[in-house]
Amino acid sequence: MDVAILQVDQWDSRACRSIHIWTRHDENARVISTTERAESVNRKNQGLSSAIGAGYRVVSQKIRYWLPSAVDRRIRVVAWLSLVTEILIVGTGGAVRLTGSGLGCPTWPTCVAGSLVPTPEMGLHGVIEFGNRLMTGLIGIIAIAAVVLLWRLRTERKDLFTLAVILGVGVLAQALVGGVTVLTGLNPFIVGFHFMASLIMVCIATVLVHRVYLPSGPRALVVPVGFAGLAHATSFVVALTVVMGVVTTASGPHSGDAEAGRTGFNAELLEHLHAWPGYATLVLTIVLLAASVRGKLPVRKLVVTLLVVELVQIVVGLLQANLGLPPVLVGLHMVLACVLAAAMTAVVLNLKAPTTLTDRVSETTHEHARS
Ligand code: HEM
């Protein structure tokens, strides 16, 4: 019987060594036997690999050590940065529309064919539009930082980790919607959708900020059921006001570019249909404030904040409507809508508290009552 012996060299990456495999075959090329001989040769390679392996272990251990194992100041700062920048980008996006720079960068993802950044020919409009794109990059970096910082806590604080991931995915999605906005020549419905999506991001960032100050676990209502119902109803009317405002804008004069289309709806009528629910939110918030002060509810400070923002928003809304929609006031009205959405979200979130905290509060109350 003819026997062929084949030698195969393999690298065992786990053990950082090379292995010689001897395989004996008969004339039909069937494997008769295989012997492995681990080689202690190749010392140079082994030394290099173990150095890389050790380096990798040291770096990963250092990163692991540096990443928070509990919610700390770094996580809170990033959560706040996320909320602030999500609101600011609405301001820069508004600046793009209100200065007529909507097509300052006429293509996407590059600013102009062949250049990622604006060229001198694009002028100020190009710079303003590109500034908004840069802002998206900043928000993306903050979202990544939040995910990285929460990495070690991803099981323990799944709520925070999920919110950070949603914010990260949201930035990507918004960048794509922004691209569609440009590529459709600033279609008013898409511009409106882009703004609404930004508002939703603001609300999600508010949830993150709220949660980084609280433990996880089940939550229980800390206000009377009627009050909670009224707060939810108010948030619904706020949402209605915002939607009507967006439709009003989409039918108004500030399209973002002389060539951009409008919805063709009656902007004057829409302005009223938008302002009425706006006044309704004010009335509902006054009732909420009265009830929260009367019942000494913990949420009353936030209701005051909500009321103040609403009052300023209504004054700005009335001024802009009566002064022929000056861009500065319209931009301010947009940013205030975000602040208002954040304040409303905060009120709704504070209707409940983690049961671990409420139990502690009621225990203390009972102890006081006993003593
Ligand atoms: C709670 C109160 C209010 C909220 C939350 C609110 C919110 C908004 C929002 C989100 C927009 C769309 C912004 C955009 O897409 O660029 C808007 C537009 C507008 N709002 Fe309000 N608003 C409120 C009250 C008022 C009031 C009382 C008036 C007074 C009439 C008013 C007048 C306007 C006008 C005229 C526009 C269209 C601006 C344009 O054409 O560019 N708003 N509002």
Automatic annotation (TrEMBL):
Cellular location of this protein?
Answer: Membrane
Any one GO CC term of the record: membrane
Pathway, per UniProt? Porphyrin-containing compound metabolism
Q: Which GO terms describe its biological process?
A: heme A biosynthetic process
For membrane topology, the record states: Multi-pass membrane protein
Q: Which residues cross the membrane?
A: 77-96, 134-153, 160-183, 189-209, 221-247, 273-291, 303-323, 329-351
The GO terms this record gives for MF are: metal ion binding; oxidoreductase activity
List the InterPro entries.
Answer: COX15/CtaA_fam, COX15/CtaA_HemeA_synthase
What are the alphabetically sorted keywords of the record?
Answer: Cell membrane, Disulfide bond, Heme biosynthesis, Iron, Membrane, Metal-binding, Oxidoreductase, Transmembrane, Transmembrane helix
Q: Which PANTHER family match?
A: HEME A SYNTHASE
Q: What is the name listed in the Swiss-Prot or TrEMBL entry for this protein?
A: Cytochrome c oxidase assembly protein subunit 15
Lineage, uppermost ranks = Bacteria, Bacillati, Actinomycetota, Actinomycetes, Micrococcales
